[in-house]
Predict the structure of L-seryl-tRNA(Sec) selenium transferase.
Amino acid sequence: MLENERIRQFQNLPRVLVVDSIRAVLAEHRRILRQTADKYPDPDHLREAIMKDVISRIRRSAQPVFRPVINGTGIVLHTNLGRAVLSQAAREAVDLATKGYSNLELNLDLGQRGSRYAHVEDLILKLTGAEACLVVNNNAAAVLLALDTLAKGKETIVSRGELVEIGGAFRVPEVMERSGSRLVEVGTTNKTYIGDYEREIRAETGLLLKVHTSNYRVVGFTHEPALRELVELGRKSHIPVMEDLGSGCLYDLKAAGVGDEPTVQQVVSAGADVVTFSGDKLLGGPQAGIIVGKEQYISPMKKNPLTRALRIDKMTVAALEATLRSYLDQDQACGEIPTLEMLTRPLGILAEQARKLGDMITQDLESDLDVHITEGVSQVGGGSLPTVELATWLVFIKPKAQKVDSFVSALRKGNPALLTYIREDWVVLDPRTIFPEQYEQLVEVLKKACGGR
């Protein structure tokens, strides 16, 4: 088969990839023939079926496993799709950091070894108002490091209503157990008072922990103490107070009419001794766990051996610095950082984008697809602002000659892949998360899914 003209078109690919594809297809057809000997009417049909399957498998194998996806779901921080899209400045910074050497841990002024955190420390302190900071590889790591440093072998008091589970079934109590701190639950699922914390304080208490419920809400008959109450109790008892913000935000989305998420600046100002938050959620940067707070608590974390295991790499440093620089001008940040731009995009612009996308699809695929646009809502995603629905305009499409499920599957297997969702037997596209430069690609993916080439 390697000498067949249709296979030789792949001679620029690694030989092992082509050979493995041929062997896998032959093995599959042998299995089929053992079960259904009369599946093919004659040898020519069998040979053609094998050839098509081999070519298809080679093409699939030649594609990178990690590849781009057009996000048609409208979910801005889609965890399965990589969460925050980096800004152009952040992408350029990563490119610069990876195409050659850099001063990652070199102080160019002194000609001495420096700290990789120095590239972002001043920016974080300026933007948050904190005394000190540290960055690790994600927020779960930030929480683990803080607990291990401040409360190992001691008790950590937390409200029952805040014992959250994050992505991948990881839970706060389990992270706490790994840190060596003992969990003390207070209050109930829906109501916890400051007195509940105070009654559990003893000599073994190492930390008062508040976990912001960034990925769910308890509503109705509820109560929780304000952070300032916990801070007052902590100071009176000489116990540090930590808040795990989860999503974390440096831009006041509430002022822009999006949710009621507290900013990192507000939490620091309220007196929290330690605050942890993510870099790749509402901040709109790379995956990172950012820890800010009082110098007396952050300094021991920097000396903890875990910090070495959890440290960020040069690509994260580069992307995070570029992202943070955008926040020096809040208006500029909203325009430059894709996450903020998508969350605050005016409804009128979304309507225009939906009409343009719908017109492009209709123009090329009117005989294959029914198309109409209508108002709808988008989700924030990524465990952020769980109750917020963002008004948007949606493009609804329905294949005329295929089942919707098989059509969506074909879109997902396209190149690039197109992720959508189904509502009442219509395929839905939300322009909020589809970049205008992707429109032509999207139409081509739709064409192929409809049977075109």
Observations:
- The CA atoms of residues 163 and 173 lie 7 Å apart.
- DSSP finds 18 helices and 17 strands in the chain.
- The domain at 69-81+343-449 is CATH 3.90.1150.110 (Aspartate Aminotransferase, domain 1).
- Residues 15-35 form the longest helix (21 residues).
